[in-house]
Specification:
The complex is a heterodimer of chains A (284) and B (264). By secondary structure, chain A is of the alpha/beta class. Chain A contains 11 helices and 10 strands. Chain A has 2 domains: 243 residues, P-loop containing nucleotide triphosphate hydrolases (Rossmann fold), CATH 3.40.50.300; 37 residues, no CATH class. Chain B has 264 residues and is mainly α. Chain B folds into 2 domains: 156 residues, no CATH class; 62 residues, no CATH class. Classes of the chains: A alpha/beta (284), B mainly alpha (264). At the A-B interface, α2, β6 and α3 of A face α6 and α7 of B. The complex binds adenosine-5'-triphosphate and magnesium ion. Adenosine-5'-triphosphate binds next to β2 and α1 of chain A.
């Protein structure tokens, strides 16, 4: 069961003077069971792309295959709910979607909508809250009286509680403190490794890409520039700089060392890889 | 949501776009007056021709107008039914089993339909061809004579322009929240009554919260930049009427004159 885009175009405000083609002829297949990063400069169409995955947007042209569903411009799949149960989408800045009296109720809202019974929904909600690092003392607070970062976590818990097979996150860590954003990325890795969830994450943070993701999709101006293994992608420095992204610190450091005369040509993903390579080089 | 495209400013480069907003508003008001004069079908024919010419000059497609009139059909048919039942003057057009339709009922409905259509087209002409900001500048100038009696013309204009400014933002926000809640299984079309109430709440509460937040932020930002209510201020954009405005006003006044003469 694939998640794939076939020749997908998407136009905002079609047939008006404001028409804008946000996606151009996208061909893309995501690997199930992996963590895939989607990167690209602002306005490159990342958010537009991910909203196709649970049929919030229908392609203007082309086909989107999601699990056992085929989504095209004309045939809006019936029973969207069952698709949305399996593909959870966390929006960019999701904190504005909170509305219930208490945090617990807000997190239970999703599962209840998907016809989970009250008791189970409560268990799932408390679980999800724990996963995002909010203990039970938060359960009875109002979601409007907590900090922005905490709201973000509640909103993410609201999708986690639905327990989808595919989790799509649009810049989940933007605006979180470094510790919080690290914990969040580690949570996604856990969900992927321990529960086999497919994770698609839009991010601007190259450190997250190199540290946590398996694959990377690069977008620019509504097109997919490349779709590769993370390790392979970062081997090509020019590729990264051509889309105005910074190298991850690790690789920037490696480049500086190479410029300074070190001979480091092995591929590396972690600090340990780099340390080993330097040690090797020094002992020669 | 597509209907909202109607009445939204379209950045074109037409005769109407270049008119001074003050005269455009005045012209629109005069046209509205003429629509409400009892000038009969000939009068409406003349106004219709005038409005059609204005549409062409503004490069608005008729298709767009027709599309936006669709929601009105329901209201008109409702009016029609009421008129048919209530109005019992004129000659009998149709009679069946004691159910009679009088000519005045038909005419009355037709008049209302024509008036509504013309009104909508006239306001659309104004809003499509005038930037919201220019519109409020125009309103402010037109209201400024009332400053003498203590009317806060500038503040009212400011309020209108802020409200106008935030309409698209609110629409975007509503769309965003709707999508976010749809991802959490909200379905506005299906479900029991209780579920629908919850669905609407899940939309309205965040909308209110963010609107209040926005209002506060905007107020802070305005104060931070030294905005003081009722302080005298100068204006960057000066409005200047041109020959186009004179031409338009002459045409509108001539039309109004004709319609008044017809309805005497
Ligand atoms: N509702 C909309 N109506 C019209 N155009 C839109 C709308 N939403 C987005 N766009 C346009 O589509 C393009 C892609 O937007 P999108 O939100 O997908 O970008 P993005 O890659 O997610 O950017 P960011 O990194 O800033 O989140 C942008 O140029 C944007 O102006
Ligand atoms: Mg985005």
């Amino acid at each position: 069961m694939p998640i794939a885009f076939e020749k997908v175009n998407y136009q905002y405000a079609p047939n008006t003077p404001f028409a804008y083609e946000a996606l151009k002829n996208i061909d893309l297949a995501f690997e199930l069971g992996k963590i895939t990063a989607i990167i690209g400069p602002t306005g490159s169409g990342k958010s537009t792309l991910v909203q196709h995955l649970n049929a919030l947007l229908l392609p203007s042209k082309g086909t989107v295959l999601v699990l056992d569903r085929t989504i095209t411009h004309t045939d809006k799949p019936k029973e969207l709910k069952s698709l949305r149960k399996r593909v959870g989408l966390v929006f960019q800045f999701p904190e504005y979607q909170l509305f219930e009296e208490t945090i617990l109720k807000d997190v239970m809202f999703g599962p209840l909508n998907f016809k989970v019974d009250e008791a189970t929904a409560k268990v799932q909600a408390l679980d999800a809250l724990k996963m995002v690092g909010l203990d039970e003392s938060f359960a009875e607070k109002s979601p409007l009286d907590i900090s922005g970062g905490q709201k973000r976590r509640v909103a993410i818990a609201g999708i986690l509680a639905i327990n989808p097979d595919v989790l799509v996150l649009d810049e989940p860590t933007a605006g979180l403190d470094p510790q919080g954003s690290k914990a969040m990325m580690e949570l996604f890795v856990r969900l992927n490794k321990d529960h086999g969830k497919t994770i698609l994450v839009v991010t601007h943070d190259m450190e997250h890409v190199i540290n946590y993701c398996d694959n990377v999709v690069v977008m620019a101006e509504g097109e997919v520039l490349t779709h590769q293994l993370v390790g392979d992608y970062f081997e090509r420095k020019q590729q990264i700089e051509s889309i105005k992204m910074n190298l991850p610190q690790l690789l920037a450091f490696k480049e500086a060392l190479i410029a300074g005369g070190f001979d480091l040509n092995t591929p590396m993903r972690t600090l340990d890889d780099l340390a080993d390579a330097i040690a090797m080089e020094l002992s020669r | 949501m597509n209907n909202i495209a109607l009445g939204r400013y379209l950045p074109l480069n037409t005769y109407t776009h270049h008119l001074d907003p003050r005269y455009k508003i005045l012209g629109m008001l005069l046209l509205m007056v003429s629509v409400f004069l009892p000038a009969g079908f000939i009068g409406y024919g003349i106004i219709g021709a005038f409005v059609l010419l204005a549409l062409v000059l503004t490069k608005i497609k008729l298709k767009m107008i027709v599309k936006s009139m669709k929601p009105l059909l329901f209201m008109l048919s409702f009016l029609m039914v009421i008129n048919l039942l209530v109005i019992r003057t004129g000659y009998v057009v149709f009679s069946f089993n004691g159910f009679t339709i009088y000519s005045d009922a038909l005419f009355q409905t037709l008049y209302i339909a024509i008036r509504l259509t013309l009104m909508i087209i006239i306001t659309t002409l104004l809003t499509v061809s005038t930037k919201p900001l220019d519109l409020t500048l125009g309103i402010e100038d037109l209201l400024s004579p009332f400053k003498k009696v203590g009317f806060p013309a500038h503040e009212v204009a400011m309020m209108i322009s802020i409200a106008l400014r935030f309409i698209p933002t609110l629409i975007d926000e509503t769309n965003r929240i709707m999508k976010a809640q749809a991802s959490r299984g909200v379905d506005l079309k299906e479900g029991t009554f209780k579920e629908k109430i919850m669905a609407i709440l899940s939309l309205i509460v965040p909308l209110f919260v963010s609107s209040f937040q926005r209002a506060e932020e905007l107020a802070d930002a305005m104060e931070a930049r030294g905005y003081i209510v009722a302080a005298p201020r100068t204006r960057y954009k000066q409005l200047k009427p041109t020959y186009r405005d004179a031409l338009m006003m002459v045409a509108v006044l001539a039309l109004l004159g004709t319609v008044i003469w017809l309805s005497l």
